[in-house]
Design a protein that fits this description.
Layout (H helix, E strand, L loop, with lengths): L8 H13 L6 H10 L1 H4 L4 H17 L10 H9 L4 H16 L6 H18 L5
InterPro entries: DjlA_N, TerB-like
Protein name: TerB family tellurite resistance protein
Organism: Telluria mixta
């Protein structure tokens, strides 16, 4: 997998892209939700750069496929999540990721795993969860 600098637009964009493709299907409603939400403006990533990040993620995941099957394990998800350290960026991304996952009216198991990992990993470190 390629790496991006911490808190970079591409690291943030990769999490959006992961949310869209993790269920094995990029729905048109998800693409529309990305552009409608204006999250790309917030993370300073233009449409063409997001398309590049999306394609790079697909290529990276295909390169790790076993017998034609692509699976994203929790270690990979966690590594992507760890590339975003800013609490404000985390909050904005988590909200956007939920909207993307919900854009097609169905929360796939794989999307739920990504969202759950983000809530757990970022919650303890970002004050999302109070003890």
């Amino acid at each position: 997998m390629r790496s991006y600098p911490k808190n970079s637009p591409r690291a943030a964009g990769r999490l959006l892209a992961l949310t869209m493709i993790v269920d094995g299907n990029v729905a048109l409603s998800e693409l529309k939700a990305v552009y409608r939400s204006r999250i790309l403006d917030h993370i300073a990533l233009d449409d063409d750069e997001f398309d590049t990040v999306l394609h790079e993620l697909c290529n990276d995941l295909l390169a790790t496929a076993h017998h034609g099957t692509v699976q994203v394990d929790t270690a990979t998800i966690d590594a992507f999540l760890d590339d975003v350290e800013s609490p404000e960026l985390r909050r904005n991304l988590l909200g956007a990721m939920w909207r993307l996952a919900d854009a097609d009216g169905w929360l796939a198991d794989a999307e739920a795993v990504v969202l759950n990992r983000a809530a757990i990993r970022w919650g303890a470190e970002s004050g999302f969860v109070t003890h």
